[in-house]
Amino acid sequence: MIIELKFNLPEKLYLKDPQGTKYGNKLLENSVLLIDELGFEGFTFKKLADKINSTETSIYRYFENKHLLLLYLNCWYWEWMHYLINVEIKNMSSPEARLQKVIYVIVNAPHKFKLTPYVDEAILHKVVVIEGTKSYHIHSVDSENKDGLFVSYKELVECMVEVVKGVQPDFDYPRALCSTLFEMANNQLYFAQHLPRLTDLKFKDDMLVELEKMLLTFAKKMLV
Fold it and tell me: Which residues contact 16 (CB under 8 A, 6 or more apart)?
């Protein structure tokens, strides 16, 4: 099912929100495709402008630089994940079932939920896995945090924390567990494909099933 999703992202990420225009949607769609193709280091606004038959000046009307564009894509992904989790657990009462569903969404959402016409969520997930940390493992992280640029990630983790507390209200480290599970879901996929000696996950067809099992095992062991 394709629907029009528009998320409220931090205003300091952009000069003009690309979600609000056809040109902006095209910019986002092709940014994801081009970063996936070239890598973030090889990606430039000049190459993006050429791909969409536009000009660099037009792109700069939306974003000051490519770092903020990458962070915008990350924030969009975090908001999308938050939205899906809320939808999927809305009518579930069992704390354990809610936790299992959260982990299912984290692992499978990019391949199971196609919602937006201008973002290929599966390719965006690849970008987040490979390039995502480059948007917040940076020297300016503290100043950007003060500007509220990571609120989408924080709210996603808080959503997960409420689920964890439902399973074990007295657990001392719910935020550490939730952020670790989310990062683990991405890192273990990356390791399986590129650095296999760093994971027990095998890069094969049933990899996502095994990853889901791995995350649930970690979560349950911590919450016993």
Answer: 24, 61, 62
Instruction: Tell me if residue 182 falls in helix, strand or coil.
Output: helix
CA distances to 15, 56, 64, 135, 183 from 44, rounded to whole Å, are 18, 9, 12, 15, 27
Backbone torsions φ then ψ of 76, nearest 5 degrees:
-60, -45
Would you say residue 4 has pLDDT above 90? Answer: no
Q: 151 and 80 in contact (C-beta within 8 Å)?
A: no
Residue 88: CB atoms within 10 Å:
16
Contacts by residues 162-169 (CB-CB < 8 Å, ≥ 24 positions apart): 163/89, 163/95, 163/98, 163/99, 163/102, 164/99, 164/219, 164/223, 166/95, 166/98, 166/99, 167/95, 167/96, 167/98, 167/99, 167/223, 168/223
Residue in the structure block whose two tokens are 């056809």: 22
Across the chain, mean pLDDT equals 95
Domain definitions of the chain by residue range: 70-223
Burial 20-57 (b: 16+ CB within 10 A, else e): eeebbbbbbbbbbbbbbeeebeebebeebbeebebeee
The string of pLDDT tens digits covering residues 31-69 is 999 999 999 999 999 999 999 999 999 999 999 999 999
Q: At what angle do helices 174-194 and 121-131 cross, to 10 degrees?
A: 90
Question: What pTM did the predictor assign?
Answer: 0.94
Q: Which helix (H) or strand (E) holds 163?
A: helix 151-167
* 224 has a pLDDT exceeding 90: no
